[in-house]
Amino acid sequence: MHFAYLCSESFFISINPAYFMNISFLKKISVLAISFCVSTSVSAQDLLAKQAPVDRKMKAVDSMILKKIIEQEERYNPAADLYEDWNNVYAHQETALPDSFRIDLRGFHMPTDSRVLTSNFGARWGRQHKGLDIKVYIGDTIRAAFSGKIRIVKYEPRGYGKYVVIRHHNGLETIYGHMSKQLVVENQEVKAGEAIGLGGNTGRSTGSHLHFETRLCGVALNPALMFDFRNQDVVGDFYMFRRNKYASESAMATRLRGVGSSSNDSDQDDELEIATAPRTSAPVHFHKVKKGDTLQAIARKHHTTIDKLCKLNHIGKNIRLRPGQILKYN
User: Fold this and answer.
1) What is the DSSP string of 169-195?
2) C-alpha span between 94 and 217 (Å, rounded)
3) Distance between CA 297 and CA 306 in Å, rounded?
4) Taking the model in full, what pTM does it have?
5) For residue 212, what pLDDT is reported?
6) What is the pLDDT, as a whole number, of residue 210?
7) Coil, strand, or helix at residue 304?
8) Which of 49, 60, 201, 277 is at 20 to 30 A from 75, Cα to Cα?
9) In which band, very low, low, confident or very high, does the pLDDT at 164 lie, cut at 50, 70 and 90?
10) Beta bridge mates, 238
11) DSSP readout, 88-145?
């Protein structure tokens, strides 16, 4: 039977020469398939190796695109919807406030690294104090709170002294007063955190400090609603201004973040005590200096001593008093 099988197979081969061709074709196919798999594996490795720098380039491109998107968002200026004009004349000119307006606080930079507040926003000495006073020393760096454009760089001897006004992309305008030197010019674009001036004691000021205002449509808003100087931060990503809730929210902000607010940091309390008046059970009163006033006359008038006046106001006995200057006494 084996012989017959061989014979039959020989016969099949003899009558069907395509048999060899099929076997040869299958061998060729097998060799090609193996070669393809090997070459594909090598090519894939080469492709991965070549792709690595491409991936790095794409990451760089993605970063550039993201940066451009951020810049475009910054260029979108809500202030354009709030302010009808741009001028370098008025520090502030009040216009109609919207019923509500969302202020973007992201990308902020604290105007100073000082954590010591010396005066709150609101009623003070029979008039409205339109900003916060922050203790700084002459020469301390003052920085832009947000990115924007410098609108005013001026000197007002009976008010802000040397001051700067910036209109920001988020719709706010900030004012920085009593500086010893301005480091920017009008119509200059600035980034958040960029130095704009140096701390000082110019204008109507009784000691070196930064007078810091936040205004919307020219109307002064309590900076404590947005800025927390003790913690060197803003209160959130956004502040939603609502006209019908502003007064109560402002009062609450002063209680939480103003002068005399509670703090868990004893060092800050000590600094605040030194920067303002010594803590005492006696109430503190204020005297507005008039032309011809002397320390001796003021002390006699208010039944105190020159030494106590000097200690309470951190001044020397030979200081030259200026009309309009405010002195504390108790």
Assistant:
1) TTSEEEEEEEESEE---TT-EE-TT-E
2) 6
3) 9
4) 0.59
5) 97
6) 97
7) coil
8) 60
9) very high
10) 104
11) SS-S----PPPSEEEEE-TT---S-S---EEE-SEEETTEEE-SEEEE--TT-EEE-S
Kindly state the helix (H) or strand (E) to which residue 72 belongs, with its residue range. helix 18-75
Q: What is the CA radius of gyration of the chain?
A: 38
The pLDDT assigned to 5 comes to 45
C-alpha torsion angle, residues 304, 306, 311, 317 (rounded to 10): 170
DSSP 83: -
Three-state SS at 78 = coil
* pLDDT at 125 exceeding the cut of 90: no
Q: Which residues contact 183 (CB under 8 A, 6 or more apart)?
A: 195, 196, 197, 198
Token duo for residue 163: 């001051």
Contacts of residue 314, defined as CB under 8 A and 6 or more positions apart, other chains included, come to 207
Interval 8-58: pLDDT, tens: 444 444 445 554 455 565 566 565 655 555 555 555 566 556 566 666 666
Of the candidate ranges 103-117, 186-200, 235-249, 280-294, the one whose mean pLDDT is the lowest = 280-294
Q: For residue 24, what are the contacts with CB-CB under 8 A and spacing of at least 6?
A: none
| pLDDT for res 76 | 59
Q: How far apart are CA 231 and CA 71, in angstroms?
A: 28
**How many helices (H) does the chain have, and how many strands (E)?**
7, 19
Task: State the sign of the Cα–Cα–Cα–Cα dihedral 314, 317, 322, 328.
Answer: positive
Mean pLDDT of the chain: 79
Measured CA to CA in angstroms, residue 311 lies from 9, 303, 314, 316 at distances of 125, 15, 5, 8
Which residues, listed in sequence order, are joined to residue 156 by a DSSP beta bridge? 161
The highest-confidence range among 12-26, 35-49, 85-99, 267-281, by mean pLDDT, is 85-99
Determine contact, residues 238/101, Cβ cutoff 8 Å: no
Consecutive H or E run containing 238: strand 238-242
Task: Count CA within 13 A, CB hemisphere, residue 2.
Answer: 0
Check if the beta carbon of residue 326 is closer than 8 Å to that of residue 206: yes
- Are 112 and 81 contacting, i.e. CB atoms less than 8 angstroms apart? no
